[in-house]
Each structure stands twice: as structure tokens, then as C-alpha cells.
Amino acid sequence: MDSILQCMRCRKTYPIDQVIYACESCGGLLDVAHDLDALKRTVTRATFDSRLGTLDAPYNSGVWRYKELIAPYLRDDQIISRPEGNTNLYNVPKLAKWAGVERLYLKHEGENPTGSFKDRGMTGGVTQARLLGMTRVACASTGNTSASLAAYAAWSGMQGIVLMQNKQIAQGKLSQSIAYGATCIRVDGDFDKNLELVKELSATADIYMLNSINPFRLEGQKSIMFEAVQQLRWNAPDWIVVPGGNLGNSSSFGKALWEMRELGLIDRLPRLAIIQAEGANPLYRAYLTEFEDYQPVHAETIATAIKIGNPVNYPKAVRALEWTSGVVEQVTDQQTMEAKALIDAQGIGCEPASGCTLAGIKKLVEGGIIAPNETVVGLLTGHVLKDPDVTIAYHEDAIPDIHPVHPNRIFTADASIGSIVAILNGDANSVTHL
Ligand code: F0G
Question: Would you give the DSSP letter of residue 427?
Fold first, then answer.
């Protein structure tokens, strides 16, 4: 059997080259389903280890190194890649101590070509768009998907179209979408409204939708898990911790881990912990009801990347949590910004949404869910330069309701050595680091 599209709810199948975003029978979300029995016979850990360090496309990409697990039906020359992935997995003992665990690794997806994990999905999505003969691709976005789509559309010679919420899009992300030449449309509506509009647009015009409801995006994002586990020499960690917005990433992680175990690449499943912002927490609320009751919320958070009240991938995220005995936690903006400041001060840096990961780990340890001796892999999803305004405002104590616990204020000196030395001998010594 070749790869097919399959409804996660009623199991109805569709050919891989059909332009379709939801099941025609029941409206369920679609998966790209691969022939795992055939893959079991053809891929091993050694298949992927042998490609490490290669200079040859597409296997030099940290996504396409795992091509058989993502799109086995593609010819190598059909793949549109920057290349992406190959991101660092940082061992961070000081942050581990702060969070209360012995071993913490942070996988920095901000080290992708456009500065977020979205590139891993976008290479899959844009490749599929070209396979289908599309010339226009579109998304709604809180900023990173649009930056990524804009870049990959330009790279592949397609028109990129991005619908952006009218306010609160971070400067770094906005500037990328403009610079890469996408058609940028500010819409008077939030992310959830824009997503509805882009769905409508793709249904009426010849425009391919590249939000994470598109299953080919999620196939690419699975590679984050493949790569993290390979970096740990194929030892599964105890926990994977990831911020949740539209829940595409967490959904793809669940599928990746489940497939890896089916294929014998790992011998046990790590547990997934999805961290939401308290002001954008529909999954967390549903989790408290054991998923009996799901209600969209009006989203508000300083982590604008995850300011999403009605995540489209909710059913897939619930499935991922069920597969992995996962948990959901929420954190306040104060906790997020404090954790971000600590990650930044390690010299690693991340955008606010990624602060949720570390804040969530600390909270889960304090709550007795993560044990101190367990191995944790946390996801940093976006680069520190994505949202410079928020970073500066935090350190200047200029964000209402946020108290900077780890501020690094800018000093002002006269243009004289004496004035500068006075600062270095005085206040500057009191900056707190871990
Ligand atoms: N972190 C960052 C930096 C993001 O940009 C996003 C999502 C998430 C976390 C959440 O991931 O949606 O898969 O649960 N950003 C999307 C966007 C929605 O439009 O850029 P998710």
C-alpha cells in the first residue's frame, strides 16, 4: 500500500494527490497514513544515522533525512527545501536545576531558516503544493507560519498570501513576511477568524491552504521528534514538553512517537506535556473535564504566537495525549516571561511562546507530575529576534501586569570613561544570572 490520506475519525481514505483538507463524509481531520509494515522492512536507525553529515540534498535537511517516514512517495528532485532542521539539542544544567529536574534538554526550533519550527512543516506543505500543480499558497497566522510560508513560496516561485490579525503581530515576523514578498493582508479579526477566512478562500479559489490543518505540514513537523530522539542516540526521553496554540506541533509529535514505536525505532513512548498560556487555554480547560467538554475561548496572552482560542487540531492533540499518557498544563504570562528571560540569559534566547515550555516544566515538577530524575526534552519554538519589542519592554519594566524578575536594564553613561567605569563598578555587578 502506498501512502494515502485517511480520516482520523471514520477512517475513510483518499488518494494522496487529492486537494482536500477535511473528510468529505464526516468532516474529520485527515492524516497522511503510510504503510508501516512496508517501512518496518526497509528503514532502521542505521538508515538515518548513515545520512548524518551528508552534503547532498535532500538528505542534508533535518526533515528529509527521514524522508521515508514523511513522504516516501516523493522523488528527491520534487522536494523544496532550504534546508531546514538540524537544530541543536542543548543540555542546560542550570535551567534544569531551576526547573527542578536532573536532566533537561532544550531543542531549539528557532534555529530553522526563518526562525521557527514552521519551516519543518512548510517544506512538506510547499512540496505537496507543487506536486498538486498549485501556484498560490495561503495561510492565516499569528506570525511565524506567515514568515515561513512567505519564504518557501518565494523560494519555490509561488505566490504567498498571508492573512494577519490586525494587531499584536510581532515585528520580526511581520518584517519577514513583507521582506520575502508575500501578499500581506491585515484583516480586522483575530487568528481564529482569519483561519475561517483562509479556509473559505481555499475552497473557492485555486489557492492551497498551508495552515496546520493541512496534514502534509504535520508530516514535516514530525521530524522534530525523529531528530531529538536520534540526537539522544535513539533513547526516548521520559517527557516531551511543547507549547500549544493551534495544536499542530503537539499533534505531529504524537504521530511521530507512535510511528517510531511501531517501527521499532524507540522501545517506549515518552509522555507528552502540552503547555498553554492561561489566557489561551481551551485544551487545558477540556483536559480538566477529561475531554468531555470542549469550549473555544477568547484568547489573550503576551505570547502572541499562541494567542489562539479555537485550535483546529484539537482532536489530533487529544489523540496524541491519549497515545502518550500525556498531560496539559497552563502558565501565566508572568511565568512565561520569567522563564523566557532565563533562557535568554543563558545565551540561547527564544520568543515568548517558548518560555511556556520551561515555565510549564517547573510547574509540572512542582505539581509532582514530572519526577526530578526523569529526562525532559523541552521545545523552544521560535527565535529570540522574533519579538524584540516584548523582550525590551520586559527588561524596561514596561509591560502592564508583568513584573520583571530578571531584568537587565540598559544603563546610561556620559560620554566619558569615568562615567562608564562608575557603572561597571557599581550597579552593573548586581545583574542576576543563574
Ligand atoms: N510557538 C510558536 C513560536 C508559534 O509560532 C506557534 C504557533 C506555537 C508555538 C504553537 O504551535 O500552533 O502547532 O500549537 N504559531 C502559529 C502561527 C499558529 O500562525 O505562526 P501550534
Answer: G
Residue nearest to atom 7 of ligand 1 (CA): 305
Q: Tell me what pLDDT residue 428 has.
A: 63
**Which atom of ligand 1 sits closest to the CA of residue 245?**
14
Name every protein residue with a CB atom under 6 angstroms from any ligand 1 atom: 116, 118, 141-145, 212, 243-250, 305-306, 351, 353, 381-382
The model's pLDDT over 322-345, given as tens digits with 9 standing for 90+, comes to 999 999 999 999 999 999 999 999
Domains along the chain with CATH numbers:
89-114+217-390 (3.40.50.1100)
| C-beta pairs of 398-405 under 8 Å, 24+ apart in sequence | 399/302, 399/337, 401/333, 401/334, 402/302, 402/333, 402/334, 402/337, 403/334, 404/337, 404/341, 405/338, 405/341
CA nearest to 277, candidates 335, 324, 237, 224: 335
Amino acid identity, residue 70? I
**Which ligand 1 atom is at minimum distance from the Cα of 147?**
20
d(CA 247, CA 67) in angstroms, rounded, equals: 23
Closest by Cα among 257, 274, 253, 255 to 265:
257
pLDDT at 434: 77
Report pLDDT digits (tens) over 68-101.
999 999 999 999 999 999 999 999 999 999 999 9
pLDDT confidence of residue 204: 86
pLDDT for res 426: 84
Q: For the residues 247-264, what does the mean pLDDT come to?
A: 98
Residue 212 CA: nearest ligand 1 atom is 13
Residue 324, judged by CB atoms within 10 A of its CB (0-12, 13-18, 19+), counts as buried
- List b or e across 111-135, with b for residues whose CB sees 16 or more CB atoms inside 10 angstroms: bbbbbbbbbbbbbbbbbbbbbeebe
What is the arithmetic mean of pLDDT over 235-254?
98
Q: How far does the centroid of ligand 1 lie from the alpha carbon of residue 430, in Å?
A: 35
Q: Which of 165, 246, 343, 383 to mutate to test the pocket of ligand 1 (most atoms within 8 A of CB)?
A: 246
Dihedral sign, Cα of residue 107, residue 253, residue 238, residue 261: negative
204 vs 86: which has the higher pLDDT: 86
Q: Over the range 359-388, which residues count as b (16 or more CB within 10 Å of their CB) and which as e?
A: bbbbbbbeeeebeeebbbbbbbbbbbbbbe
Name the nearest CA neighbour of 2 among 31, 38, 53, 43.
38
Q: Within 10 A of 416 (CB to CB), how many other CB atoms are there?
A: 9
